Each structure stands twice: as structure tokens, then as C-alpha cells.
Amino acid sequence: MAAHDEDPVGDGALDRVTWALRRAELAVQALKEQRLRPLGMAAAHYTLLMSVHAEPGLAGAELARRLSVTPQAVASLVARLEGRGLLERREHPRHRHVQELHLTDAGREALRAADEVIADIERQITDTLGGDESTQLRTLLDRVTKTVRDA
Asked: From what superkingdom does this record's organism come (predicted)?
């Protein structure tokens, strides 16, 4: 048997829960990118702005850990968003080498507009699923998250 004829994955690989989760995430991310583009924003910008909104004063290194990206990736995004006037860095009150991230007024407005787009995507999904299935999906995803974090 030639090497190209061998099955590179195990039986049922395309039916795995983890593969279904990944396909769903890719589809949602693609739709976010498409719908946020007219606002001049990428999904990564929305995620970063939302994270800073949720926890004002986060440092770049901590933000990178929470988003599971490199500090360099966060620094690049922060520089871009700061250049657009959406974020500002402030000196940490006790650690002068640490800079805290905060939304500007323009950043809050941009986040509000982007969140309307994301909420519309959410409505499309939940309208299709209905209330009971939406609640069930959220519960199951929360259980998956806990299981993976506890592993």
C-alpha cells in the first residue's frame, strides 16, 4: 500500500466532538470577521477591547496569558488600537515598568458598535436553536470548558 493511501486519522475522527467544536468556532470567527470588517475592526480587536472593558487596567502580559497569545501579538494589537485612539496605556500605580490598558471614549464607542454586530450574530444562532437548545448548548459548552481546564 502506498503511503498516500494510508488513513492518517483514527476511525470516527471527523465525528469527534472536538472537531465539531473547531468547525463551529471557525464558522463563527469567519462570520465575525466578515461582519466587523465594515467597522474597520477584526475579531481580535473586538476580543482585546472586550477583555480590557471587562477588566480595566490589565497589563499586556496578563492579557496575553488570558487570550492565549504571545505578548508580542498583544503588543502589536495594543499599538494598533492605541494608534487609532481606542486604547490608552497608563502607568501602574505601584510598578512603574508596568503599563495598564484602558479604553478611551472612542474605544468604548467602537466596542459598543462592534458588540451590536456580535449580538446580531448571537441572535442568529439562538433564534435558530431556540431558547431551550441555546441554554442546553451553553451548559454543555461550560461543562466542556471545565472538563478541559481540570484535565
From this structure: Bacteria
Q: Give the predicted TM-score (pTM) of the model.
A: 0.83
Phi/psi for 68 (5° steps) reads: 55, 45
What tens digit of pLDDT does each residue of 46-61 get? 999 999 999 999 998 8
Strands (E) in 20-122, as ranges, are: 87-91, 99-103
For the chain, which domains are there? Answer: 34-136 (1.10.10.10)
Check if the beta carbon of residue 39 is closer than 8 Å to that of residue 114. yes
Instruction: Give CA–CA dist 111/121, Å, rounded.
Output: 15
What are the backbone angles phi and psi of residue 87, rounded to the nearest 5°? Answer: -130, 155
